[in-house]
TrEMBL record:
Pfam families: SlpA. This is SLAP domain-containing protein. Transmembrane segments: none annotated. Residues 1-20 form the signal peptide. Residues 237-286, 313-358, 370-432 form the S-layer protein C-terminal domain. InterPro entries: SlpA_C_lactobacillus (IPR024968). Keywords: Signal. It comes from Companilactobacillus huachuanensis.
Length: 435
């Protein structure tokens, strides 16, 4: 609500003196009544119609006369060039809204090969600027970034794909401990690996590479850094059994109740988490409490995670998405830490590079709140727009699936008694919304 306030000068004293003469002082007073004019709130009966003038719904809304009406009924969106505005108080006004649709966008490289696809939602006729540029690609031109949504249309957006290589990091015993993706304009380009690309806790024999043929794989040998403490734990109220690296109890070896111990590593063994407290001696996580030695919310977590069927975005420690950094589909990665930020869990896969836990599976872990099973097939949305949900059952407010559209599924889960199907990375639709 805009306010305009008059600028007032009160008690302004003007006086003048001439040598040898006395000038009578004159006091000039400004109006001392301050006025503030606020825009009045109006109530309108808003009659919503579609692009063809067909009636949709009535709704009583409040706003400022002349201001834009930004509300739209379920299944509809405000037009890109919104001309719907509030009228006089108690007036009936008509607002045109566009039917919400979901369209598929394919990113196609210079060799006419599909790089990636995504689903974009919005009102029919609205313009949308694409922002999810596939990793390792550039836009052909700025104009290609903007599309106008047309129901039933599939968009092929051209991108220029750089030469891509996968780097696999292995120890001297041929154990894979991480992967990285490198890009360049042409074969033969010199590439220097960054610190963030090398697996946490390891040192690479070399960081200088030459880009090879597109989609080639290169191997680098790494050596584990000297073992260092990554935190401490305190044993709970009773002595804690110690285990070998394979999860077998070590006879006669326990930790005293209430004693504190440094953590050197973390592993998931047969679905249970263990902390390393001595050479080949591990304590089960349920028997101890991790001490809050730091204020960053990060706890040690050494395991392996595997991405799903699509690219997984990487984030920094603040939860900000990293431009041009992602993990390839169906790839495995070594983790070093775990944190919860704004209610979401992340796993550390490199220095200041974190992956959303909902986009990966952890080796040896099984979920207790959901029952996720592979379910590949095609589902069809019923006659209404279908909301999308995260793996935790939280509604996604800016994305939905259009009526009658078909979607490829990857997994199926049961959460709080309802069945969901996965149609994109961390995007699930309820079975009740399907034909």
């Amino acid at each position: 609500m805009k306010k305009s306030t008059s600028l007032l000068f009160s008690g302004l004293l003007v006086s003048g003196m001439v040598l040898g003469a006395v000038t009578t002082p004159t006091t000039v007073h400004a109006d001392n009544t301050a006025t503030t004019q606020a825009a009045a709130t109006v109530t309108n009966n808003v009659r919503f119609v579609d692009q063809d003038g067909n009636f949709i719904a009535n709704k009583s809304l409040q706003g400022v006369k002349g201001a834009a009406i930004t509300f739209a009924p379920d299944g509809y969106a405000t037009p890109t060039n919104n001309t719907n505005i509030f009228g006089d108080d108690n007036a009936t006004v008509t607002a045109t809204v566009n039917k919400m649709v979901s369209v598929k966008v394919n990113y196609v490289d210079q060799n006419s090969k599909l790089v990636n696809s995504e689903v974009v939602n919005g009102g029919v006729g609205n313009t949308v600027k694409l922002t999810d540029l596939p990793a390792g690609c550039n836009w052909v031109n700025d104009a290609e970034q903007t599309i106008t949504l047309v129901e039933g249309k599939e968009y092929n957006v051209p991108v220029t794909k750089k030469v891509f290589n996968t780097v696999i990091f292995k120890t001297s015993d041929n154990t894979e401990v991480g992967r990285a993706e490198i890009f360049g304009d042409k074969v033969g380009d010199a590439i220097n690996l960054t610190t963030s690309q090398i697996p946490a806790g390891y040192k690479a024999d070399t960081t200088s590479l030459t880009l090879q043929t597109d989609n080639n794989t290169q191997f680098i040998t790494v050596t584990k850094n000297a073992e260092a403490s990554t935190g401490t734990v305190t044993v709970n109220d009773k002595a804690a059994q110690l285990y070998s690296i394979y999860g077998n109890a070590i006879t006669g070896r326990t930790l005293d109740a209430k004693s504190s111990w440094k953590i050197f590593d973390t592993k998931v063994i047969k679905g249970k988490t263990y902390y390393k407290v001595a050479t080949n001696e591990w304590v089960e996580a349920s028997d101890v409490t991790v001490n809050n030695d730091t204020t960053d919310g990060v706890t040690p977590f050494t395991s392996n995670v595997t991405t799903g069927g699509v690219v997984s975005t990487l984030y920094d420690k603040t939860g900000k998405a990293l431009s041009g950094r992602a993990l390839g589909p169906n790839t495995a990665w070594k983790t070093a830490g775990k944190m919860v930020l704004n209610g979401k869990t992340y796993y550390q896969v490199a220095t200041n590079e974190w992956v959303d836990a909902s986009t990966v599976t952890v080796a040896g872990e099984t979920t207790t709140d959901t029952n996720v099973t592979p379910s590949k097939g095609v589902v069809t949305i019923n006659s209404n727009v279908a909301n999308l949900y995260t793996k935790g059952g939280v509604a996604i407010t800016d994305r939905a699936l259009g009526p009658g559209t078909k979607w490829q599924t990857a997994n199926k889960m049961t959460l709080n008694g309802e069945t969901y199907y996965q149609v994109a990375t961390n995007e699930w639709v309820k079975a009740s919304n399907l034909k």
